[in-house]
Amino acid sequence: MSEPAAEWPTVGLTLRVDGHEYPVPQVWIGDSLLAVLRERLDFDEPRDGCGAGECGACLVTVDDTPAAACLVPAVAAVERDVRTPRDPGFDAARAAVAAAGAGPCGFCAPGLAVAITSLLRRNPDPGPAAVREALSGVICRCSESGHWIEAVALAKEAEGGAAAGSGASPDPDDADLVDPARRPEAAAP
Ligand code: FES
Ligand code: FES
């Protein structure tokens, strides 16, 4: 957590995270939701990646909408429903990501699970374009992300959908399009 300017006031707040209420005293008003989750409440997921809304490692949902926790002021999350990747609602996607082998180090996996779950909740039968768009905000620096398409298909199966013949089925051409290595930002060191 960054050192606040001396004049920054603090507030006590209560966050509802994964269905539980957490009182948090003396939160600097400049603190992000990510900082409070990780450093005050000991949630090791979401991950702390870029801190600038660029990598998707810190994805959570706020009132069922995916959000980069590093960009959400903690005070703005009061009286909202915050769900981290550890919420059971993301279990199916987490299992699918693991089963698809979607990345060796796993750093991006929590954010990926949130992105996949959010996609399938608003679009149970996503086509390749919808999959590409939904996952484009999650950057993986060490994986051939063709597995991500497979992870979506597996998550869909786990949710009870019929993956066979759907637009989310693995397809090498589609996989190329969501490979972060092909995105310009992935070229940065
Ligand atoms: S840490 Fe929030 S988007 Fe990268
Ligand atoms: S598996 Fe390492 S960043 Fe995605």
From TrEMBL:
Protein name: 2Fe-2S ferredoxin-type domain-containing protein
Signal peptide: none
Domain 2Fe-2S ferredoxin-type: 11-88
PANTHER family xrefs: OXIDOREDUCTASE WITH IRON-SULFUR SUBUNIT, XANTHINE DEHYDROGENASE IRON-SULFUR-BINDING SUBUNIT XDHC-RELATED
InterPro entries linked: 2Fe-2S-bd, 2Fe-2S-bd_dom_sf, 2Fe-2S_ferredoxin-like_sf, 2Fe-2S_ferredoxin-type, 2Fe2S_fd_BS, Beta-grasp_dom_sf, Diverse_Oxidoreductases
Record-linked Gene3D superfamilies: 3.10.20.30, [2Fe-2S]-binding domain (1.10.150.120)
SUPFAM superfamilies: 2Fe-2S ferredoxin-like, CO dehydrogenase ISP C-domain like
Keywords: 2Fe-2S, Iron, Iron-sulfur, Metal-binding, Oxidoreductase
Region (Disordered): 160-189
Residue ranges with Basic and acidic residues bias: 179-189
